């Protein structure tokens, strides 16, 4: 994909125009601009840039007006429209998106991150980040320097700012530190819990954005009989386990119980499926435009010669993850290790590789490593998985992600 784009900036503040133009030109992009919104509209229609950057409050035509007019023009549906405004209010942000904007930045912009962020909007990228790749137990120390020792936590960030967190193992503390350091402002996120085993929930109360007023989080996951998600999380914060109660969160944190279902978050579709693991454990399929991300952990895939082998379940799972651009999945054991861990609820290399291949997955991310495995052991598992895929003649690529590593879906 071409990496240099044409921009048109409309802002009645010439200093901001200068700053944005300099930033974008330094990255090789072409920039036109006008501080008169009326004159700008005609020039935008004539030049049809890849991306229009608009202020909201301007004399003559305001930014919303220009956005609405451009969205009505034929041939302008692919042109990205991004607001850079001094208005930090949700109302204006939502208005912008309802008029067809693709992005919304609040002034003052962060000059370090702005060029990358705007490219993410233009390319419509989803950012995938790993904050903890281990299963069962955190493993600090010399054996986990490369891949990291934290338990399950993965995030997705969408071009319009939607933020999804999958699981709250100890990796969520790294995410928390990262969010505080990057001063992202108000955070509105969804936390999808696969299941309430310790390695997927026990650092949730160390997620500092919960204690900051103005933030908002929906924590979703499977109920267990009469035990709701709220009760499951609050029970690990009751007196003897932790001194702060759920009621003391300063952010708005609310809980939802999920079953096998499908629902929308804006233009994103979330689908869930119950996985083969002790208790209720949900896998997630996230669809955004033509992109598919699947988070399937913890999950046991029985080899075909096992007496527990269940073809119906396997077929259902293959259909559920079919065509995923990214599959993050439980690959806890080598095939050899699995022999003594049957019915622990986790999968091994060959089963995972075959699953990804049969489902036409583009990129398979090995996840939820056993606590007894060192970095070298993970590397061996990675090699083994790639070999199985090669033997299958598969197009699926295999990645062993490291803690804090980011990818584009
Ligand atoms: Zn686990
Ligand atoms: Zn588990």
Produce the secondary structure layout.
Layout: E1 6-10, H1 14-26, E2 30-34, H2 37-47, E3 51-54, H3 63-72, E4 80-85, H4 90-98, E5 103-106, H5 114-123, E6 127-132, E7 153-157, E8 163-166, H6 171-181, E9 188-192, H7 198-201, E10 216-222, H8 229-235, E11 252-258, E12 262-265, E13 268-274, E14 282-288, E15 291-296, H9 311-321, E16 326-330, H10 335-338, H11 349-358, E17 363-367, H12 375-391, E18 397-399, E19 406-408
Structure description:
By secondary structure, the protein is of the alpha/beta class. The protein has 2 domains: 6-123, 3-Layer(aba) Sandwich (Rossmann fold), CATH 3.40.50.2300; 127-408, Ribonuclease Z/Hydroxyacylglutathione hydrolase-like (Metallo-beta-lactamase, Chain A), CATH 3.60.15.10. Helices cover 29% and strands 24% of the residues. It is built from 12 helices and 19 strands. The strands form 3 sheets. It has a 7-stranded mixed beta sheet. Strands 12-13-14-15-16-17-18 form a 7-stranded mixed beta sheet, with helices on one face. Strands 2-1-3-4-5 form a 5-stranded parallel beta sheet, with helices on both faces. A hairpin with a 2-residue loop joins strand 14 and strand 15 (291-296). Helix 11 (349-358) packs across helix 12 (375-391). The longest helix has 17 residues, at 375-391. The radius of gyration is 23 Å and the shape is globular.
């Amino acid at each position: 994909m071409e990496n240099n784009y044409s921009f048109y900036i409309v802002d009645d503040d010439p200093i901001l125009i200068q700053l944005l133009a300099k930033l974008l030109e330094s990255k090789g992009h072409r920039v036109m601009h006008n501080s008169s919104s009326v004159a700008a509209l005609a020039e935008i229609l004539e030049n049809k840039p890849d991306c229009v950057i608009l202020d909201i409050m301007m004399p003559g035509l305001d930014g919303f007006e220009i956005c609405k007019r451009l969205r009505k023009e034929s041939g302008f549906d692919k042109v990205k429209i991004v607001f850079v405004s001094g208005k930090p209010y949700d109302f204006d942000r939502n208005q912008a998106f309802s008029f067809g904007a693709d992005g919304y930045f609040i002034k003052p912009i962060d000059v370090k991150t702005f060029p990358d962020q705007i490219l993410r909007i233009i390319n419509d990228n989803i950012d995938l980040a790993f904050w903890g790749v281990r299963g069962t137990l955190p493993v600090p120390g010399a054996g986990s320097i490369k891949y990291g020792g934290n338990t399950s936590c993965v995030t997705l960030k969408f071009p319009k700012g939607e933020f999804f967190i999958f699981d709250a193992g100890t990796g969520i503390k790294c995410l928390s530190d990262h969010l505080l350091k990057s001063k992202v402002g108000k955070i509105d996120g969804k936390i999808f819990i696969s299941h309430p085993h310790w390695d997927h929930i026990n650092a949730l109360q160390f997620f500092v954005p919960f204690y900051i007023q103005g933030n908002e989080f929906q924590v979703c996951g499977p109920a267990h009989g009469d035990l709701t998600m709220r009760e499951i999380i609050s029970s690990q914060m009751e007196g003897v386990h932790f001194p702060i109660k759920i009621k003391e969160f300063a952010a708005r944190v609310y809980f939802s119980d999920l079953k096998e279902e499908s629902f929308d978050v804006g233009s994103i579709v979330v689908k869930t499926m119950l996985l083969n693991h002790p208790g209720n454990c949900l896998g997630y399929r996230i669809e955004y435009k033509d992109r598919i991300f699947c988070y399937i952990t913890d999950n046991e895939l029985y080899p075909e010669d096992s007496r527990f082998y269940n073809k119906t379940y396997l077929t259902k799972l293959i259909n559920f993850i079919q065509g995923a651009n990214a599959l993050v999945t439980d690959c806890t054991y080598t095939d050899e290790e699995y022999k003594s861990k049957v019915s622990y609820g986790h999968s091994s290399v060959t089963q995972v590789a075959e699953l990804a291949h049969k489902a036409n997955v583009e990129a398979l991310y090995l996840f939820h490593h056993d606590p007894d495995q060192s970095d070298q052991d993970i590397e061996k598992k990675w090699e083994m998985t790639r070999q199985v895929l090669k033997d299958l003649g598969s197009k699926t690529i295999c990645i062993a992600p490291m803690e804090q590593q980011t990818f584009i879906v």
